[in-house]
Amino acid sequence: EGVGPQEYTLIKMKLVQPYPEKLKFTKKSLKNKPVFLVAATLRPETMYGQTNCWVHPDLEYVAFKLKDENIFVCSERAAKNMSYQGFTTKNGEYEIITKLKGQDILGAKLNAPLSFNDIIYTLPMLSIKPDKGTGVVTSVPSDSPDDYAALTDLKKKPAFREKYYITDEMVLPFEPIPIIEIPDFGNLCAVTVYNELKIQSQNDKDKLQIAKEKVYLKAFYEGVLIVGEFKGQKVQDVKKALQKKLTDSKEAVIYYE
Ligand code: A2H
């Protein structure tokens, strides 16, 4: 971690019907307000490849209303940070609508910006850190070794799915999507390193750390988008443009911590 604040792009993943019980609000001031699970990412240029959303089943999350009347779901720590970054009506204040556990929103159906999948599902990831970002992570298994490992665990282990009431249709149809070509790593770099390092599961912390180090800088300096409106351009040249496209269309916001 460097000095000074880290900038994240917060991806707004819109909840679609049927809503989970805990996110059904009947109060007049909340009814029909859009609800988003918000995921902190360093890689806005990979959003074409989103296949699911991750939450930690045992972590606590809050829902709170922004000054633009959107409702965000994230960790309370992130809500507090956002309240100091102009997201809420009063600086430093945020009104919690409800508290919930990650397990309460598993299986929730979402609409994720730019994703080639129209609908994605909220699934369990056990390596989510409570003190980073929003506690919600968007999953891009083509380019993130952590995401590929966690998705593969769910695919390989029916008992893991059953434990959290995750149905086959929420997991099995979703495959990593080729979106970025990297010399020596092909167009599914996370899958390449996962296989090379013989990673067994999302608990293989040391190998996953090595996997991330192997691909991260290489993706930035040598990766080329092979889909979307910036097709043919280098990651380092389009990262900012894609972040701007997402924030201009209000599908994402910038967040610091
Ligand atoms: B990244 P840094 Cl394609 N716990 O987004 C665990 N991981 C978290 C998290 C949390 N609370 N909050 C965010 N993250 C993940 C995309 C991506 C990411 C790709 C490739 C690499 C990558 C899709 N997932 O991150 O510690 C988010 O996953 C590699 C590090 O602040 C976020 O970006 O550097 C990244 O970790 C932020 O991690």
Automatic annotation (TrEMBL):
GO terms for molecular function: aminoacyl-tRNA deacylase activity; ATP binding; leucine-tRNA ligase activity. It comes from Aphis craccivora (Cowpea aphid). GO terms for biological process: leucyl-tRNA aminoacylation. Belongs to the class-I aminoacyl-tRNA synthetase family. The keyword Iron-sulfur does not apply. This is leucine--tRNA ligase. Keywords: Aminoacyl-tRNA synthetase, ATP-binding, Ligase, Nucleotide-binding, Protein biosynthesis.
